[in-house]
Specification:
It contains 9 helices and no strands. The protein is an all-alpha fold and 333 residues long. The longest helix has 49 residues.
């Protein structure tokens, strides 16, 4: 049975600082992921075909937009609505559950990206692996649709399970309205159960992500040994593609582990110690991770880098036109 310790209070200055940081993280995360989404969505509007990598990045950016929105709502709940002296309110529980589903989808999309890198960059010698790599390249769109469908089904199941357990909790509270501590523990156990189940389902995609990343690392080592034997140009396209792919996968691994550890640490802080400051720090770490990886994806993708350059040149030309317009004496009359 869960046992709670003393409840910590948070000053106005701490809450204001945390809210300011949350707004900043939300703005950066929203801008970076919205940029990835708009660049690829604009190609769809122009009826230009998207390659498999662009499709994965499009889905990844959408899932992260949901992640940032839910984490920002989480921050608002912590600063304005949720009091640690009271049981977790229903809206805060719903935000946590939806965040877990969005985070699960984000992990699956990242795993699809690692599978795609493997199928495109690694030169397999075994017939089965060659056929498997071709199958992944052909079926990546179906895999993305499957992830989206599974996420929608999980959302429906979790919402139904949430409201059914909520009805059970309310019924229990009516019979045990004098035992506030027991009511808290029933609510916390229900949410903790959902948290545990969701993270158990994260194990298969995370293991698959690790295997594909390890295969890319082995492939890069083999390619570099080949380059030492057969001296080539230092700007080898295959080597550069390997390095960019591994940079994006390694950064995702680091950010995901940071986010996972922060979420794991927040569980006892939220359910046992009712430590709002500790939960705020964990939420801040979780919000910083998706935006950091999105920035690395933009720097590693040639299409997105060109789009960034185009936007910067457009902004620079607009600023120059405005400056010239203000400096022209005829416009002052």
């Amino acid at each position: 049975m869960l046992t709670q310790t003393s409840i910590s209070t948070v000053s106005y200055e701490v809450r204001s600082t945390f809210l300011f940081i949350s707004v900043l993280e939300f703005a950066v995360g929203f801008l970076t992921n919205a940029f990835i989404f708009l660049v690829n969505f604009w190609d769809i509007v122009k009826r230009q075909p998207l390659n498999n990598c662009d499709r994965v990045l499009l889905c990844l950016s959408i899932s992260r937009l949901f992640l940032h929105g839910l984490l920002f709502l989480n921050a608002l709940q912590l600063t304005h609505f949720q009091k640690m002296k009271e049981p977790l309110n229903h809206s805060y529980q719903a935000i946590i559950m939806l965040w877990m589903i969005a985070n699960q989808a984000n992990l699956w999309f990242a795993t699809c990206l690692s599978l795609l890198y493997c199928s495109k960059l690694i030169r397999f010698s075994h017939t089965f692996l060659i056929c498997l790599a071709r199958w992944v390249s052909r079926k990546i769109s179906h895999m993305l649709l499957g992830i989206i469908l599974c996420s929608c089904i999980c959302t429906i199941i979790c919402v139904w399970d949430f409201f059914s357990r909520l009805h059970f909790t309310v019924t229990t509270v009516l019979f045990m309205n004098n035992n506030t501590r027991l009511n808290w523990q029933i609510t916390d156990l229900n949410l903790f159960y959902s948290f545990l189940v969701c993270y158990m389902w994260s194990i298969p995609p995370f293991l698959l992500f690790l295997v594909t990343s390890w295969m890319l690392t082995v492939s890069l080592g083999r390619h570099m040994r080949t380059m030492k034997v057969h001296i080539r140009d230092s700007r080898d396209p295959s080597l550069e593609a390997h390095i960019k792919a591994l940079k994006s996968l390694a950064s995702f691994f680091c950010f995901f582990v940071m986010s996972f550890c922060a979420a794991l640490i927040s569980v006892p802080l939220l359910f046992l110690r009712r430590n709002k400051i500790g939960v705020m720090v964990c939420v801040g770490i979780m919000a910083a991770c998706p935006s950091g990886h999105a920035a690395i994806l933009i720097s590693s993708n040639a299409k997105l880098r060109r789009a960034v350059t185009t936007v910067l040149l457009w902004a620079q030309s607009n600023l120059k036109v405005r400056a010239d317009h203000k400096a022209d004496p005829r416009t002052l009359c």
